[in-house]
Write a structure and sequence with these properties.
With 256 residues, the chain is α/β, with parallel strands linked by helices. It has three domains: 83 residues, Beta Polymerase, domain 2; 90 residues, no CATH class; 75 residues, no CATH class. Helix content is 40%, strand content 19%. The protein has eight helices and eight strands; from the N terminus they run E-H-E-E-E-H-H-H-H-E-E-E-H-E-H-H. A four-stranded mixed β-sheet has the order 1-4-3-2. A four-stranded mixed β-sheet has the order 5-7-6-8, covered by helices on one side. Helix 2 runs antiparallel to helix 3, helix 2 packs across helix 8 and helix 3 crosses helix 4.
């Protein structure tokens, strides 16, 4: 299954998320929601992933009647629903993957790092959403101890505090190609995010395709659309190595 596009919507609370999701389900349009017969198929709030991921994913099959839009009919659009707390956790997982030789998002690499993000998910779910994640049977003290034991080995929170991703070329346009070079651990303070802005979406797509072909082995290249630079920075924090919310949440949860 291939997506024509992806959309990530971030909410203050789980309640806000569920209200909006319900309104979308009852909206008057022709787009077909895949898996509509199984409401909880991709509901990782009800059924958190074993790695600690929480959020809701839905896929719609694009269906419009306009002449300009018919070209895309039948292709898929994925929508991700998250709260700010869930987004902070997901961002930290992706930044850890960009800054280290591990891939915790895919369950690869250091088992200590993978376990640490499981403990982190549990801490955040309990502290900020009154819920549980992938370790519901542990006491809160066991969760804290588990996280701290992992941190002694990974030092990932310390690394997050030290990272300073520089951003070049921020002449913001609505269509942007982000290029985040893969870096070695000893060079993380020198990482530079390139932003290639375009008014025209088709020129942005051409640039994305060219950079992806040229740099796929040395950088992560992504095409994004946003209404403002601040909006883009919040939604795609992983490419700005921005883990400040995650670090603050973890520190507060551990201090309770």
């Amino acid at each position: 299954m291939h997506d024509i596009a992806g959309c990530r919507i971030i909410f203050e609370t789980v309640e806000d998320l569920l209200i909006f999701r319900n309104s979308l389900h009852n909206a008057n349009f022709n787009h077909k929601r895949r898996g509509a017969d199984n409401e909880e198929r991709w509901n990782y709030l009800v059924n958190p992933k074993s790695d600690g991921y929480r959020g809701i994913h839905e896929v719609y099959e694009y269906d419009v009647r306009s002449e300009g839009g018919k070209t895309w009919n039948g292709l898929n659009v994925e929508i991700q629903f998250r709260t700010y707390a869930q987004h902070a956790w997901s961002t930290a997982v992706e930044v850890a993957g960009l800054l280290t030789m591990n891939k915790p998002k895919f369950g690869q690499g250091s088992q200590e790092l993978i376990n640490q993000f499981r403990f982190a998910s549990e801490l955040i779910a309990r502290q900020y959403e009154g819920s549980v994640s992938c370790l519901p049977d542990l006491t809160i003290q066991e969760v804290k101890d588990g996280f701290n034991d992992c941190e002694q080995k990974t030092r990932i929170v310390g690394l997050f505090r030290s990272v300073n991703t520089k951003v070049v070329d921020i002449d913001f346009k609505k269509n942007n190609v982000l290029v985040f070079p893969y870096v070695k651990m000893e060079d993380e303070n020198q990482s530079v995010l390139e932003v290639h802005p375009y008014d025209n979406v088709f020129r942005a797509i051409e640039r994305y395709n060219a950079l992806e072909e040229k740099m796929s082995n040395v950088a992560d290249v992504v095409l994004v659309r946003a209404d403002s630079f601040d909006n883009m920075r919040v939604t795609f924090r992983n490419y700005f190595a921005d883990t400040t919310d995650f670090v603050s949440m973890i520190e507060e949860a551990l201090a309770e």
